[in-house]
Design a protein that fits this description.
This protein is of the alpha+beta class and 147 residues long. The chain is built from 4 helices and 10 strands. The strands form 2 sheets. It has a 7-stranded mixed barrel with strand order 1-5-4-8-7-6-10. It has a two-stranded antiparallel ribbon with strand order 3-9. Strand 1 and strand 2 form a beta hairpin.
């Protein structure tokens, strides 16, 4: 089974909501107009679709892509085998994995997310953070390859 880019989302510094977009032009500092487009090690966040689906089954709630603050949702990714230093190719772009898992301190970090019911340790443990190593256009439906 091939991995597929299911969703692209961005959040501007001025906006509290994630916005789904169909296509993005990855640049060396991240995704333009996204709050994390700053050239650091956490330019792009990924959440495997399977993690979201597991949480939906657990809670009985339906979530929209972007509800967890992720930039990309990828389906079919062998995310449990990924490690820091691995690269992902999607569309014309390439990402380097810089961190796996987000810090989870429910009382301190969840805020708005907790109100929406999206603050969960399993979700936090499976975030994948990346930086752009090859700029290029990515589009929903692109196949994703682990290099």
């Amino acid at each position: 089974m091939s991995a597929e880019l299911k969703s692209l989302c961005i959040k501007s510094k001025q906006d509290k909501l994630m916005h789904n977009i169909k296509q993005a032009d990855l640049i060396k500092t991240g995704i333009p107009n996204d709050v994390h487009c700053d050239g650091g090690d956490f330019q792009v966040s990924i959440l495997p679709e399977e993690v979201i689906k597991n949480y939906e089954n657990e809670t009985g709630k339906k979530f929209t892509y972007g509800d967890f603050g992720e930039n990309l949702v990828i389906s079919g990714l062998d995310y449990k085998s990924l490690k820091v230093g691995d690269s992902l190719t999607l569309g014309d772009g390439r990402l380097l994995i810089t961190k796996i898992g987000a810090d989870f301190k429910k009382s301190e970090n969840c805020g708005e997310m907790e109100e929406k019911g999206v603050c969960n340790k399993e979700i936090h443990d499976n975030y994948i953070f990346c930086k752009v190593t090859v700029a290029g256009i990515i589009t929903g439906g692109d196949l994703v390859y682990i290099d």
